[in-house]
Write a structure and sequence with these properties.
With 373 residues, this protein is of the alpha/beta class. It is 40% helix and 24% strand. The protein is built from twelve helices and 15 strands. The strands form two sheets. Strands 1, 2, 3, 4, 5, 11, 12, 13, 14 and 15 form a ten-stranded mixed sheet that branches. A hairpin with a 3-residue loop joins strand 3 and strand 4. Helix 3 packs across helix 11. The mean pLDDT is 92.
């Protein structure tokens, strides 16, 4: 046979497979109706294992793994369809709506002039935030009820994730309510009269140092990590040493520093994304990003199976990354953002189904995007 003849046969077989697939799904609808009438669980682990083991056994030696993967996907499609049918009569969850205008106390890390302050003003234009020295103190203040909302950086368009924030997410009880982004115009700031060739060290937050690494390398500058760009600027202003800070231009002006170089980020424009967190879950009608944190059992193909659920449900996966659990093992925790609003019943059912694949699962929130006026 030539290639066209082979492809013709494949096309014919694909149509037959599609027909068989649809017939199987219709039978699964009948199964779902029976389970619903008789109050039976959707997932029956032993039955699924028997089917997968049987298909693997019947397959030819070099196709056993492929056959098992194929029927795993088919059964995942079946389970999600059945769950939608069986849960169709359940009442949707109710969630509180955020009301930022009525907020009395909000907080962020840093001091006046920090990018976190700018982000906080986008969320709460009429509030002066409470400033905390560290990220974990912002989380603590929200969890304890000391403040109603906290503002934290999570991602930079040049340097990537703010790992300090992500590493703290598993330690505190909170929910992401909203997010925004701030354009970060980094500059090199010094005490008046300090020359570039006199600078002994440059202080800033590790993220800002990473964002400006090309400039730092080009000028042969020695760097020193600091808690925050704004507090670094304040420290430089109070020091008698020939040191510099990388901070925002506004921050440099507030602290009375002289700007030697401006817009020194590796990539321009340079943006940082911030989240607004609350103690209780609050979901606006405009919320369109769901954030979750999860760990997976250490079995072959489990991550592929998890991601396949998003594909089956036609849900847009926005971001996925992992961080070490930091317990001495090499296990990781995954942070996933995807499109949706948990007021939507199909989305809430999908999250319920998603949990079943995971070893541990935590809903981090459902956020709406804010834009500066």
């Amino acid at each position: 046979m030539n290639l066209n003849e082979i492809r013709t046969q494949i096309d014919k077989m694909d149509r037959e497979l599609l027909d068989l697939f649809q017939k199987r799904m219709n039978l699964c609808r009948d199964v779902a109706a029976y389970k619903k009438a008789n109050h039976l669980p959707i997932f029956q682990e032993e039955r699924e294992k028997q089917i997968l083991d049987k298909m693997e056994e019947l397959a030819e030696d070099d196709m056993k793994s492929g056959a098992k993967a194929l029927f795993t996907v088919i059964m995942d499609i079946s389970k999600q369809m059945q769950r939608q049918m069986i849960s169709s009569d359940e009442e949707a969850h109710e969630f509180a709506y955020p009301d930022f205008d009525k907020a009395k106390k909000v907080g962020c890390q840093g001091c006046p002039g920090a990018n976190s302050e700018t982000a906080s003003k986008i969320f709460f234009p009429n509030h002066e935030p409470v400033y905390y020295p560290s990220f974990h103190q912002v989380f603590e203040a929200v969890e304890s009820g000391e403040i109603e909302y906290g503002v934290l950086p999570v991602y930079n368009s040049t340097a990537g994730s703010v790992t300090q924030t992500y590493d703290l997410m598993g330690e505190y009880n909170f929910f992401i309510t909203a997010m925004n982004q701030v354009e970060v115009a980094n500059c090199l700031a010094v005490r008046k009269g300090t020359k570039m060739e006199e600078i002994t060290r440059v202080y800033s937050h590790p993220q800002a140092l990473s964002q400006c690494s090309d400039f730092i390398k080009r000028n042969h500058l020695k760097i020193k990590d600091y808690d925050n760009t704004a507090t670094a600027a304040r420290m430089v202003a109070e020091s008698n040493e020939p040191i510099a800070a990388i901070c925002s231009e506004r921050c440099a002006k507030l602290t009375g520093l002289e700007i030697l170089e401006t817009r020194i980020s590796n990539v321009l424009p340079n943006f940082t994304r911030f989240i607004c967190i609350s103690k209780e879950i609050e979901v606006s009608e405009e919320a369109d990003i769901i954030s979750v944190m999860l760990t997976l059992p250490n079995v072959p193909g489990i991550l592929s199976k998890l991601l396949m659920k998003f594909f089956i449900q036609n849900i847009d996966l926005v971001k996925i990354e992992n961080r070490p659990i930091r317990d001495g093992s090499f296990d990781v925790v995954f942070y996933i953002d995807f499109k949706g609003n948990i007021r939507d019943r199909s989305i809430s059912l999908f999250i319920t189904e998603l949990c079943k694949t995971c070893k541990k699962f935590k809903l981090l929130g459902n956020s709406a995007s804010f834009k500066s006026e």
